[in-house]
Amino acid sequence: MIWGICVLRIDKLTKRFGANAAVENVSITIEGSAMIGVIGASGAGKSTLLRMINRLADASEGAIWYQDREVTHLTGKAKRQWQSECAMIFQQFNLVPRMDVVSNVLHGTLNRRSTLATLFNLYPTEDIHRAIDILDRLGIAENAPKRAEALSGGQQQRVAIARALMQDPKIILADEPIASLDPMNAQIVMDALRRIHDEDGRMVIANLHTLDTARRYCDRVIGMRKGRVVFDGTPEQLTTGVARDIYGAGAEFSEATTSTDIAALEAGREALPA
């Protein structure tokens, strides 16, 4: 599959915590707009990789390039600018529970607002309208005046996606965006991320909890094990043998493996019977 010109390049990226390497010598090139799924067992280094791309964590070695700009060592204003171009969505939503939904979405503009405007919670009318339009696009505009804590988990995750879109990012990084959701809300959230990719042409990189989700939604799947990339290919290439390489040679499951089976594998338990 051809994605066009080179956009994001990760070169021999490593992150160490003491003597342990959470991510080790990872090199990935993502060309053009793509929806990428990153899979692997708990502790494989998926979250650390995304946090380094977003610069929430510093790399121990290696480099991250976007277009012709190295972002690995950006500081101050330049780092904040990169983080606005590379929005992050978290498993636990990271909303302000007692704040209304539209204000949570407007927090996506904080990097470009003055300290005074932030202090007094002042937003331009056009930003408020845009926030409501984004909520409407995600099917939750009617919840704009409600407190975030009053919403279901799936609705809160869509608010978090709306906040990311307020940044008008070139890349969206989603760290286990559906791990805490029930199957129906998980599908709604993944449908929203895929639609954003398709309609906006934004790159989406998502750490995912299950093989079936990666196969269904992603153009490309990257498998990590013990901090290293052990698979990089299309969903069609994600065979049972490849899955065993990612999750461990002792894993027993078929091509029809369910989400529950993979969740068990990621938790270090034996797979359920087919």
TrEMBL record:
Per the database record, which ranges form the ABC transporter domain? Answer: 8-251
**Cell inner membrane: is it a keyword of this entry?**
yes
What InterPro entries does the annotation carry?
AAA+_ATPase (IPR003593), ABC_transporter-like_ATP-bd (IPR003439), ABC_transporter-like_CS (IPR017871), ABC_transpr_PhnC (IPR012693), MetN_ABC_transporter-like (IPR050086), P-loop_NTPase (IPR027417)
**Alphabetic keyword roster:** ATP-binding, Cell inner membrane, Cell membrane, Membrane, Nucleotide-binding, Translocase, Transport
Spell out the protein name for this chain: Glutamine ABC transporter ATP-binding protein
A GO cellular component annotated for this chain's UniProt record is:
membrane
GO MF annotations in UniProt:
ABC-type phosphonate transporter activity; ATP binding; ATP hydrolysis activity
TM spans (from-to): none
- Fetch the Pfam families from UniProt: ABC_tran (PF00005)
Keyword Translocase listed:
yes
Domain of life (superkingdom): Bacteria
